[in-house]
Amino acid sequence: MYNINRRKFLGLFGCCCSSVLLQSCASVPITERKQLSIIPEAKINKQAALAYESFRQKSKLITSGKQLNEVRSIGKKIEVSVSSFFEKKGEIDPTSNFGWDYVLVDNDKIVNAWCMPGGKIAVYTGLLKITKNVDALSIVMGHEIAHAVAKHSIERASQAMTINLGTAVADIFLGGAINRTRNTIGQNTGMDIFQLGIMNPFGRKQETEADYLGLIFSSLAGYDIRESVRLWQRMAEKNKGKEPPVFLSTHPSSKKRIENLQNWITKVMLEYPPIKT
């Protein structure tokens, strides 16, 4: 009854997808890079808030002391500076709907920090052994906050949605070849290909973008962003011989990061000086 050849179907499908994608583009604040944004931010933020609350309940958190106060102080300064920056430029504040919160996780073995969509931030005590000072810690926190400001989670989720849809349609017109191959060799063949060919380059672009925006946010908050180079030199020393090949990593190498930071520092200090709040 609904007889249509594959070429015609794919043509119609492509037109529909193109129309949706054109209507679902957003721009990253400051860098103005175009990004895919299909999933509502409110939905992502709600899911993130639930996950964050679950994490808080299950984790060993430090509830007082100098280290926690530093984390909260840095976060608050960046938070206020970012809002003030966009307000003074007469632009929409991308953090206006954030429910900011900061926790310090008591775990010296994990050298990490993250920021969930909506401004939920965790710093691990293991990271503080590498940052060593508030300027370096502000670089890491600025980077993580930049992911949330730039809506990278929404972008990645939107990319995953379109890739999953595209892979499913391709499998239909390949007679189920992708699914059969996956079942035979025990791998998600479609996603493996997309991760190496499409998703990782986007991941690295997002990480580099977060490095740049994070540097700006730290500068706006009044921190010495020259410390970023020394921070990543320490990171490189700690990770010596452990970093995966760049083409398999979603993060730029420490060497590439240091090169980028050295190229950006003077420009950022001149164009994004500490903001009066």
Description:
This protein is of the alpha+beta class and 277 residues long. The chain has one domain (6-271). The chain has 10 helices and 6 strands; from the N terminus they run H-E-E-H-E-H-E-E-E-H-H-H-H-H-H-H. A 4-stranded mixed sheet has the order 3-4-6-5, sandwiched between helices. Strand 1 (25-27) and strand 2 form a beta hairpin. Helix 5 (134-149) packs across helix 8. The termini are far apart.
Number of strands: 6
Count every helix, treating DSSP H or I runs of 4 or more residues as helices.
10
Radius of gyration from the CA trace?
21 Å
Distance between the termini: 66 Å
Indicate the low-confidence ranges by residue numbers.
8-20, 167-202
Biggest beta-sheet profile: 4 strands, mixed
Beta strand %: 5-15%
Q: Which whole number gives the mean pLDDT?
A: 81
Summed up:
With 277 residues, this protein is of the alpha+beta class. It has one domain (6-271). Helices cover 63% and strands 8% of the residues.
Which labels suit this protein?
277 residues; alpha+beta; four-stranded mixed sheet; 8% strand
Describe the protein's topology.
Elements: H1 6-22, E1 25-27, E2 34-36, H2 41-58, E3 61-62, H3 66-88, E4 101-105, E5 113-116, E6 120-124, H4 125-131, H5 134-149, H6 152-173, H7 177-185, H8 189-220, H9 227-238, H10 254-271
Parallel strand pairs: 4-6
Antiparallel strand pairs: 1-2, 3-4, 5-6
Helix pairs in contact: 3-5, 5-8, 6-8, 8-10, 9-10
